[in-house]
Backbone:
């Protein structure tokens, strides 16, 4: 079975990494062989589609390309694709899309996030997001493009008749660095991600931590940890609200709540020493930090994400993370509760790490590809059957 991957550079290409990581499993089970061509040029993608004589084409488009241009591309791709199934992988933040108009011309639309309630695709949300609409309606931000509230830019109308072609794909939890982390290769991640000088400084600090522990002088743990990069617009306002709220915690707690940046290695070191990690929303409600916190054993606390479906779907309220209200009115209260109840905190953090690592131990990405093939009515002969995986979440 021949599969052509046509990602764009950056996040889209990162989202295609699991095809490389699980190449042996995919080949063994489905005889899948992939060819990847990375390009941000839609004309080049069309040529690749013309040249391809296989079974499945999985493509992405540049995030800043106009809706009409992508529609023209999809029409031509459908015309030139020969017998292959045509699948758009939408790696963009959020569970809305500006590209629903392509639906008649493709076989499947994969998104890394979806509304849990598909009826919501018949609504229009301020800023193309329920969370952003809440920020506006509650008076936290103004409904202006200066606040990065783009209501029409990131959403379009999804015809109910096309629901059958919409399917949940996978998110950045399957980026290379997060797979490596889950498989116990944090050091490999850090040497790849961090500057050598910053990595060496953190290694020296870790050595000092070990010496202190050996003589009974362990470093003071971090009770609450939150380092947030400030972007702009609505997400800046939200993140600053989280930072400022945490800095009002009682003085008896050791709190690092800051916009100050540290090296990637130091960031991991601090997270590993933390009892609680608070994760404000980014451009989407989820962030890669959510999964990193789960791996390092910090209790993940973040604004509730129960309105969104995603994959890996391992954020379960009060089981693998703690949800707080969007107005953050219970943030400090819940932080204090779990600091004062270490047994309950450990129960959730143990569950979280088990869910995160278990996803990769069970190779559930391979099961996701099985779902995609079934949805496309592609039934390759399976040469190896995996054991039925445990369900991480409903």
Residues:
């Amino acid at each position: 079975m021949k599969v052509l991957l046509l990602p764009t550079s950056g996040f889209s290409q990162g989202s295609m990494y699991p095809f490389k990581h699980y190449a042996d499993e995919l080949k063994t089970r489905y005889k899948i062989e992939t060819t990847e061509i990375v390009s941000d040029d839609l004309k080049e993608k069309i040529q690749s589609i013309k040249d391809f004589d296989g079974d499945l084409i999985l493509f992405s488009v540049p995030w800043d390309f106009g809706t009409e241009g992508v529609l023209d591309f999809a029409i031509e791709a459908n015309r030139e694709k020969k017998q292959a199934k045509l699948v758009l992988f939408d790696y963009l933040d959020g569970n809305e899309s500006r590209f629903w108009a392509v639906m008649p011309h493709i076989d499947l639309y994969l998104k890394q996030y979806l509304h849990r309630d598909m009826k919501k695709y018949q609504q229009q949300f301020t800023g193309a997001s329920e969370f952003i609409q809440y920020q506006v309606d509650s008076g936290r931000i103004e409904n202006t493009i200066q606040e990065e509230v783009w209501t029409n830019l990131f959403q379009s109308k999804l015809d109910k008749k096309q629901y059958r072609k919409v399917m949940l794909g996978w998110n950045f939890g399957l980026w290379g660095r997060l797979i490596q982390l889950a498989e116990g290769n944090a050091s490999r991640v850090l040497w790849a991600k961090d500057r050598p000088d910053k990595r060496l400084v953190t290694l020296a600090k870790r050595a000092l931590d070990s010496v202190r522990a050996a003589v009974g002088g362990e470093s003071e743990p971090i009770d609450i940890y939150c380092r947030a990069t400030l972007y702009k617009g609505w997400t800046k306002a939200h993140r600053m609200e989280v930072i400022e709220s945490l800095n009002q915690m009682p003085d008896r707690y050791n709190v690092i709540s800051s916009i100050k940046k540290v090296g990637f290695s130091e960031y991991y070191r601090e997270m590993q020493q933390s009892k609680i990690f608070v994760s404000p929303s980014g451009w989407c409600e989820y962030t890669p930090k959510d999964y990193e916190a789960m791996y390092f054993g910090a209790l993940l606390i973040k604004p509730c994400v129960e309105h969104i479906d995603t994959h890996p779907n391992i954020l379960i309220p009060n089981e693998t993370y703690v949800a707080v209200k969007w107005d953050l009115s219970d943030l400090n209260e819940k932080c204090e509760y779990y600091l004062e109840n270490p047994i309950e905190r450990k129960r959730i953090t143990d569950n979280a790490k088990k869910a995160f690592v278990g996803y990769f131990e069970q190779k559930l990405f391979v099961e996701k590809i099985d779902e995609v093939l079934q949805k496309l009515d592609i039934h390759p002969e399976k040469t190896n059957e995996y054991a039925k995986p445990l369900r991480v979440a409903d």
Summary: The chain has two domains: 2-149+162-174+363-375, 183-361. The chain has a mean pLDDT of 93. The longest helix spans residues 342-361. Residues 2-149+162-174+363-375 form a domain with the Rossmann fold fold (CATH 3.40.50.2300).
